[in-house]
Amino acid sequence: MARHCPNQTFLLLMQTSKSIQERVRENITSCSLSMTEFSVLEALYHKDMQTIHEIGKRILITSGSMTYVIDKLEEKELTKRVACPKDRRAIHIALTDKGNEFLEEVMPKHEGWVDSFFEELNPVEMENLKNLLEKIKRKTEK
Q: Does the residue 15 lie in any domain?
């Protein structure tokens, strides 16, 4: 016997999220990067040099996993480790020149492609969607 889903909104949100993630993953892997690698690069692109902990917190990855990802990005010569002059225990992660050049080429295309998911929404609908999602997010973070 088939059962009716009691919360169709939740189901649709999860299906939409999964669909978007799959499409983004396909696009990112065409650049020879994993989703996590791209997320690290994107975090550095938008907020410059950061510690492994800061990046991990921003993209929701543990620091143990982050070390592996940073190693892979260093092998690809897209990031580098930089000692913090104020705290010798801290290591910052920064984009290399190659990493910056790569992202200057890729990010505008990626951002335009992501924006295309929402092109059928008018500005008021976009603002409403954003506000509703933020409201749900705040409730889940308690």
A: no
Asked, for residue 79, whether it belongs to a domain, the answer is yes
Q: What is the pLDDT of residue 15?
A: 93
Distance of CA 109 to the CA centre of its chain: 15
- Taking the whole predicted model, whether its pTM rises above 0.70 is answered as yes
- At which residue do the structure tokens 């696009």 appear? 27
In a domain, 5, yes or no: no
Residue-wise pLDDT for 131-140, tens only, equals 999 999 898 8
Measured CA to CA in angstroms, residue 46 lies from 54, 85, 136, 142 at distances of 13, 22, 25, 27
Angle separating helix axes 35-47 and 52-59, nearest 10 degrees: 110
Strands (E), the chain: 50-51, 79-83, 91-95
Q: How many domains does the chain have?
A: 1
Give the CATH number for residue 123.
1.10.10.10
Q: Let me know if residue 82 belongs to a domain.
A: yes
